[in-house]
Write a structure and sequence with these properties.
Layout: E1 9-13, E2 23-29, E3 32-38, H1 51-54, H2 56-60, E4 70-72, E5 81-83, H3 86-103, E6 108-112, H4 120-133, E7 137-139, H5 145-155, E8 171-175, H6 179-182, H7 184-195, E9 199-203, H8 209-212, E10 216-218, H9 225-238, H10 244-250, E11 251-252, H11 254-261, H12 266-273, H13 277-289, E12 293-297, H14 307-320, E13 330-332, H15 347-355, E14 362-364, H16 368-372, E15 386-390, H17 394-397, H18 401-408, E16 414-419, E17 431-434, E18 443-445, E19 452-456, H19 469-479, H20 491-498, H21 503-512, E20 514-516, E21 536-537, E22 568-571, H22 587-593, E23 597-600, H23 602-607, E24 615-620, E25 623-631, E26 639-642, E27 677-683
Parallel strand pairs: 6-15, 7-14, 8-9, 8-12, 9-10, 11-21, 12-13, 15-16, 16-17, 22-26, 23-25
Antiparallel strand pairs: 1-2, 2-3, 4-5, 4-17, 18-19, 19-20, 22-27, 23-26, 24-25, 24-27
Helix pairs in contact: 3-19, 4-15, 4-19, 5-14, 9-12, 9-13, 9-14, 12-13
The structure holds ligand MGD (2 copies), iron/sulfur cluster (SF4) and molybdenum atom.
């Protein structure tokens, strides 16, 4: 059916935390996955995968795949383990968790994120297990929460223009996004638009590979996007380049936004953002005079203190000029709000059994460094006594890693890690449980980039003794005597449960691999935002009751303006050949990245006597990160870039970038400040 391949193909979905959620075809021969391809029939994937996932079989058959359950046999962090049977491991884990739960189940904390974005191997069975147990609830804020919450105050949900429609845009602003590295399939659409005459502009402090290929690059200071967006709004207002009809019919809060924007004339924007005032005027002119204009916002701008406000300021722009009227006009951060996930209806009942009328304690995953070290107190509740980690590598990815390590190293903490590999986090486990990869289990995926549901069927048998996450939580539930019927649902049933799918849609998923939601090409041409009024809330009065400014404003970065001791702003965006800390252990991909590097502008390097290739120490009051200097004009003066989330143990001197990142949080969504950090850099002799 999918012509060019001769071997049997199994339809799947890329599990990774990437907006593209590609549809996969895995070629299988004699029970072995030979190669993973992009499904040519899926419009956004178009038969193409990124370098990382095109090499997925290297990951699946990696000689270091965890093959059997392991029990710790040395000090925490030493990486000394002995193999045990699944029964031994599960019996002991169930007993230890049971003991803690009898004292207070809230001392148990699940820790998971998007190692897989699958609905099933993500939270389907895990959330039920932890609810029935009465464990603390994990607030999963680490990536997108500032932007998602900010956008939801304006649109009522994380929804924007369908990604395919960027092909019709005649002006595209790629804002806080390195599309070529981190969501390649959008870049293909941008190229299509460019060939039809579109102008591409990249707004990013770093001259990325995407910036190189755009017509214009606006290299603003990190954390100042709200000032730029308000400055553009100011120009639209003073020149009367507004779509008054659209504003009257489909927005609310214009007066408050106007008053705010008028405080941002170009010279003030220029001073805050570190760009030319004329750039602001020209951007506004282009934006008002090119139709359709699409803004592809991504997550880069919302990792600074004012991230939520910045997102709201940017999302005011398409409403001001009525860009939503046209296919290819508007803005896109996330389209996850179009999917109607079926809430697990049994969760409230399970919680009631475990906690009665109490609500579970909430732990923010972004402050795990603080929380693991926090003593019991009336405000905090019990100290954390057990962690169950799956789909995440917190020792590498969470802020303030030296304190994360200190927490994980607590001898009185009981830690279970479900993993495919012996990560930095697995090194601190009491039990490591081997997990299947996407080629070995069922799953079903929504996307935050496109609006298709993608089904993942297993292509091969589990490697070694690896188990899907669901099977682990089912087995633990059984040992703990949880006999509710939901714990008996198998993975295919859980796939069907995840969305409201009728029989025809399910049949289509099985047959074709994906199912397209009926989202119109210009979804907000006639309003219909997801707010109660259906209008875009340029200013949102309900925010006041939550102690928030209803109208978007520039919120100063926490650290990125620099200080006397730590004068350089540091951002740490993804490396092209890794996905967060995933793939760092795949040799061929690590070889392309080489080693952990710090990009630094020639002027900043010269002031410090640093030459290209020198080992440098990047430090602040939290810690020191060692890596190689790459002296380059990809960095603007005053800003340095630590690329990629390396495994600590594969970096220099066992450190990575998160050594210097703090546990402060954003204005909205309680998310981390990964790109709002001040450091000093010195040559190591
Ligand atoms: N190859 C690869 N792809 C990935 C990932 C990966 O690690 N590697 N990670 C995946 C995940 S989890 C996510 S969340 C997405 C992330 O991908 P994106 O959403 O694109 O976000 P980031 O890569 O965090 O940042 C994007 C760009 O924002 C820039 N930036 C930093 N600070 C600012 C700022 O204050 N303002 C502006 N305007 N720009 C700023 C950075 O230099 C970077 O080039 O990508 C996914 N795709
Ligand atoms: N300094 C800095 N830090 C960052 C970022 C940054 O830009 N700069 N980015 C942040 C962002 S955007 C994000 S999203 C987070 C990501 O943080 P995480 O969600 O922790 O992502 P990964 O580092 O990819 O680790 C995922 C782990 O899940 C495992 N895994 C994959 N599939 C499965 C499965 O089916 N079962 C089990 N049991 N395990 C599985 C993988 O082997 C991998 O080790 O990192 C954040 N950290
Ligand atoms: S990581 Fe992104 S681009 Fe690469 S295969 Fe997965 S969804 Fe596609
Ligand atoms: Mo992310």
């Amino acid at each position: 059916m999918n012509a060019p391949f001769s071997l049997p193909m199994v339809r799947g979905a890329c599990p990774h935390d990437c907006p593209d959620t590609c549809a996969l075809l895995t070629e299988v021969q004699d029970g072995r996955a030979v190669k993973v391809h992009g499904n040519p029939a899926h419009p956004l994937t178009a038969g193409v995968l990124c370098t990382k996932v095109a090499r997925y079989t290297e990951r699946v058959y990696h000689p270091e795949r965890l093959q059997q359950p392991l029990r710790r046999a040395g000090p925490k962090g030493s990486g000394q383990f002995v193999a045990v049977s699944w029964d031994e491991a599960l019996d002991d884990i169930a007993q230890r968790l049971g003991e803690i739960a009898r004292r207070d189940p809230q001392a148990i904390v699940p820790y998971s994120y998007a190692g897989t974005m699958g609905q099933v191997q993500g939270e389907a069975m895990a959330s039920r297990f932890f609810a029935r147990l009465g464990a603390s609830f994990l607030d999963r804020t680490i990536c997108s929460n500032a932007g998602k919450v900010g956008l939801s105050y304006t649109h009522g949900a994380p929804v924007g223009m369908p990604v395919e429609t960027f092909a019709a845009s005649r002006l595209i602003w790629i804002w806080g996004s390195n599309a070529i590295a981190s969501h390649l399939h959008f870049w293909r659409l941008a190229q299509q638009a460019k060939r039809a005459g579109a102008k591409l502009v990249c707004i990013d402090p770093r001259r990325t590979e995407t910036a190189d290929k755009c017509d214009q690059h606006v290299a603003l200071r990190p954390g100042t996007d709200a000032a730029l967006a308000l400055g553009i709004a100011q120009q639209l207002i003073v020149n009367d380049w507004l779509d008054h009809d659209y504003l009257a019919a489909h927005t609310e809060g214009l007066d408050a936004l106007r008053a705010r924007a008028l405080q941002w004339p170009p010279h003030r924007v220029a001073q805050v953002c570190g760009i030319d005032a004329q750039v602001v005027r020209d951007m506004a002119y282009d934006y008002a005079h090119t139709k359709p204009a699409g803004i592809r916002v991504n997550y880069g701008m919302q990792r600074a203190r004012g991230g939520g406000n910045a997102m709201r300021a940017v999302f005011a722009l398409p409403s001001l000029v009525g860009a939503w009227r046209h296919e290819g006009g508007g803005a896109l951060l996330s389209n996850s709000g179009w999917f109607t996930r079926k809430a697990a209806a049994d969760l409230p009942g399970l919680l009631k059994k475990s906690l009665g009328t109490r609500a579970p304690r909430v732990i923010n995953m972004s402050t795990i460094a603080d929380d693991l070290l926090a003593p019991a107190s009336p405000a905090f509740g019990p100290s954390i006594q057990a962690l169950v980690v799956y789909n995440s590598n917190p020792v590498a990815v969470a802020p303030d890693s030296s304190r994360v390590v200190k927490g994980f190293a607590r001898e009185d903490l009981f830690t279970v890690v479900l993993e495919q590999f012996q990560t930095d986090t697995a090194d601190y486990a009491d039990y490591v449980l081997p997990a299947t990869t996407q080629l070995e289990h069922w799953d079903i995926h929504a996307s935050y980039g496109h609006t298709d549901i993608v089904l993942n069927q297993p292509a091969i048998a589990p490697q070694g003794q690896a188990w899907p996450n669901t099977q682990v939580f089912r087995a633990l539930a059984a040992r703990m005597g949880f006999d509710e019927p939901c714990f008996a649902r198998d993975d295919q049933a859980l796939c069907r449960d995840a969305f409201d799918l009728d029989d025809d849609q399910w049949a289509q998923l099985l047959e074709q691999g994906f199912y397209r939601l009926p989202v119109p090409a210009a979804p907000f041409a006639h309003g219909g935002f997801f707010t109660p009024s259906g209008k875009a809330a340029l200013s949102n009065p309900h925010m006041a009751s939550q102690g928030l400014d209803p109208t978007p404003d520039y919120v100063q970065p926490a650290e990125a303006l620099g200080s006397a001791a730590y004068p350089l702003a540091m951002i740490s965006p993804p490396a092209r050949n890794f996905l967060n800390s995933t793939f760092v252990n795949v040799r061929s991909l690590r070889d392309i990245e080489g080693e952990p590097v710090l990009e630094i502008h020639p002027r900043d390097a010269a002031e410090r006597g640093i030459e290209d290739g020198d080992e440098v120490a990047v430090f602040n009051h939290r810690g020191t990160y060692h890596c190689a200097a790459r002296v380059t004009t990809r960095a603007r003066p005053g800003v340095v870039h630590g690329l990629g989330v390396w495994w600590r143990k594969l970096g220099r001197r066992g450190t990575n970038v998160n050594e210097v990142v703090g546990t402060g949080l954003t204005d909205m969504g309680a998310a981390p400040l990964f790109y709002d950090v001040a450091v000093q850099v010195a040559k190591v002799s």
